[in-house]
Specification:
3 helices, about 70 residues, mainly alpha, single chain
Length: about 70
């Protein structure tokens, strides 16, 4: 899921009119580094939440798996 998340953000930066990747690209042209860091932190938090939810789902649904 990690590579899919990276490709989503990159494709938003290249060819979208909305999304976090697009917002980072727009703010980059205005040299708003503090806003870019907030967007990157938001992307990280969303990714960690999705990862945690998937780990929880796998542990609860497939008890034989060894996901730590």
């Amino acid at each position: 899921l990690g590579p899919a998340w990276v490709f989503l953000i990159a494709s938003e930066a290249i060819a979208a009119n909305a999304g976090l990747g697009y917002r980072i690209f727009v703010v980059q042209r205005q040299l708003g580094m503090n806003i870019i860091l907030l967007y990157v932190a938001l992307i990280m938090v969303i990714g960690l939440i999705i990862d945690g939810l998937m780990r929880w789902f796998i542990k609860s649904r497939y008890r034989w798996s060894e996901v730590s």
